[in-house]
Design brief:
There is one protein chain. The chain is mainly alpha-helical. The chain is built from 3 helices and no strands. Helix 2 packs antiparallel against helix 3. The chain is elongated and about 60 Å long.
Length: 108
């Protein structure tokens, strides 16, 4: 049995079909992205030094992992890497804001 995600992609005859399928995926992805982002708030709470918000080694480990996962799932590793790099930059910026917010009014 093939379990690659690419195999679950339905054949679409019209753009309406494509949009319906993409919207259905977005309904699954958005809650997962909200959860993923919530972990950035926890990371901002746990990290004691703002210089630890950006972790280049962790970024590379995630890129390596999602590229491998893309191959396993029948996708394009470069596309998944680009999506993840953009997402991680947005998450890092969010974590910086959360780091500052969580320490507002706290004496240094």
């Amino acid at each position: 049995m093939n379990t690659q995600a690419i195999q679950a992609v339905q054949h679409c005859a019209t753009m309406t079909d494509v949009r319906r399928c993409v919207d259905a995926l977005d309904d699954v992805l958005v809650p997962l992205l909200v959860q993923r982002t919530a972990y950035m708030t926890q990371a901002a709470r746990i990290k004691q030094d703002v210089n630890h918000v950006r972790d280049e080694a962790r970024i590379q480990a995630i890129v390596d992992r999602v590229r491998q996962r893309a191959v396993v799932e029948g996708g394009e590793p470069a596309v998944i890497e680009a999506i993840y790099r953009d997402m991680m930059e947005v998450c890092i910026a969010f974590e910086h804001r959360e780091f500052a917010r969580l320490r507002e009014g706290v004496a240094a």
